[in-house]
TrEMBL record:
Keywords: FAD, Flavoprotein, Oxidoreductase. InterPro entries: FAD-dep_OxRdtase_2_FAD-bd (IPR003953), FAD-oxidoreductase_2 (IPR050315), FAD/NAD-bd_sf (IPR036188), Succ_DH/fumarate_Rdtase_cat_sf (IPR027477). Pfam families: FAD_binding_2 (PF00890). Its EC number is 1.3.5.4. The lineage of its organism: Bacteria, Bacillati, Actinomycetota, Actinomycetes, Streptosporangiales. GO terms for biological process: steroid metabolic process. It comes from Nocardiopsis algeriensis. Residues 17-435 form the FAD-dependent oxidoreductase 2 FAD-binding domain. Its cofactor is FAD. Gene3D superfamilies: FAD/NAD(P)-binding domain, Succinate dehydrogenase/fumarate reductase flavoprotein, catalytic domain. One of its GO terms (molecular function) is steroid dehydrogenase activity, acting on the CH-CH group of donors. This is Fumarate reductase flavoprotein subunit. It comes from the Bacteria.
Amino acid sequence: MAPPHSSSDPSSDDAVDLVVAGAGGGLAGALRAADAGLDVVVIEAGETFRRGNNTSMSTAMIPGAGTRWQAEAGLEDSPAAFLADVRAKTRGQADAVLAEALTDFSSELVTWLADGLDLPIELAADISYPGHSVARCHTVPSRTGAELLDHLVARARAHPRIDFLVPARLVGARTHEGRVCAAVAEYPDGTREEIPARALLLATNGYGADSDAVRELMPEIAGAVYHGGENSRGDALRIGRELGAATGYLDAYQGHAALARSAGTLVGWATIMHGGVLVNTEGRRFGDETVGYSEYAAMLAAQPGSEGWIVHDERVHELCTAFGDYRDTVEQGAVVSAEDAAALAERCGLPADALADTLARAAEHAVRGSTDEFGRGNWEAPLRAPYRAVRVEPALFHTQGGLVVDGRARVLREDATPIEGLYASGGAAIGISGHGAGGYLAGNGLLPALGLAVLAADHCQERLLAHRIS
């Protein structure tokens, strides 16, 4: 193996055009590059990645502003409106360059996924997510990341210009005269292979599986369940830093307050946005649930026992069956039902008087359309008996900080100059969620995962073409 910063020549004939580390959202970049005529190698650490990474564990919500699906639904939207929502949700903390680049690219991304990759895209017009001023989340029929990833994997496996190394973990990268020249892969038996490469896309997610880093950087969620890919251990951060990359927003993350405690499945925040409430073990609500599922995770973690119950009804239940994750939760027996508040309190082990009072107060606000003492004014409809409920606990889904990148996904040094040939996407890069958990908008995981991967592929293709012409 060559030593770090070896004299390997990235322009040599045996160099692959692009190495993609991570077979999640990074596959969108692999496919984009391969369709442009580049030769691609995908390195993936987990043999079960089709069900074990954050893309597969998502609800496949991809925001796009000003798409044809929105137009068909009679909805007006624009990148400017999307950017305004990002700025509002993050209180102006989101990286300005990246936020503008991704919101501008969002419509093109969704369109390319549908037209270029034949992904069965549809607009999730039936659900309003916190912070989005208009329905702009596009998804697949099952609303599961598993369907999204299966489609990307099938396309990539069939592409003649894409090769896979699985299982293999990216452990390093080499540069020559400031340019990426090789990627270093390690196999389960400990052997390593250096792959000559003209470019490297770090798409290995963040560091949510590194409990020590989570405790240091985001202590308020450190005690929550980690519900993400087991290989999200900060590999991209380490490799990028070794090459002189800058990092940012390392305290940012996506939490979730709707993980079914008994089943480990995602209940989904649609239960809340369609009119449900979240109560603690004392049968009381403790905030405005509609501010967002990410920031509500830490709020739930601070409650007695770090658990609660999402209470909804038959109307909400039927609406939520559109989500594959919710159906899985029901099939696992995690959702209980009861004819009235007293019976529900007994089934859930909650104080009957407190729960009845909570549900009565919520229903009154919903009927009146009024704002409650927590500031919640979004009530789709009052809850009515018979009720349903599911015991939930807070979870950390993925981190939202990482290597600093520009609007083309190029990894930047501390002086803001790009490391030539090095790109990052998804959790490996800074996102557009600002600091902490409160700036997370639905889709803030997949938009940087897919969008930055595609932008990286486009820039890589342009760069290599320019070198060849020159």
